[in-house]
Write a structure and sequence with these properties.
about 45% helix; about 130 residues
């Protein structure tokens, strides 16, 4: 039994222990002075860039605010005196209203829902 343990069981156990020590990617928890931009970068920013931060609109060249800047985007996300986000207000206006955004149409329901949920959850991004 001693030779069996020494030549078979011990190497198998050593292999199990070593294989359990993989280099997992450590992702620290977000603290109050940091921000997690993963959801914003993956889900929200592409919608904003494709529909709002386009040439002639909120791209930082001709019209303000510049939606390529999270800080300027944040200014229209924050609630006004009525407790409503200016961005959501503009997105929800009828297409016939001259203040409706985007000017060339409407976001899909999925896109609008993602933005609304993101805003409701604190619009995290940097």
């Amino acid at each position: 039994m001693t030779k069996f343990f020494k030549y078979l069981i011990f190497p198998v156990m050593l292999l199990v222990v070593i294989s359990g020590c993989v280099k997992d990617k450590y992702e620290p928890a977000v603290t109050n002075n940091q921000c997690d931009t993963t959801y914003y970068a993956r889900e929200i920013k592409p919608i904003i860039v494709a529909n709002c931060a386009i040439s002639g609109c909120h791209d930082g060249h001709q019209s303000t605010p510049n939606f390529n800047s999270f800080i300027e985007l944040k200014a229209v996300i924050e609630e006004d005196d009525n407790g409503e986000s200016e961005l959501m207000h503009r997105l929800e206006l009828p297409l016939s209203d001259p203040l409706h955004m985007p000017v060339d149409g409407r976001l899909t329901h999925d896109e609008q829902d993602k933005i609304e949920e993101w805003i409701d959850n604190g619009y995290i991004g940097c």
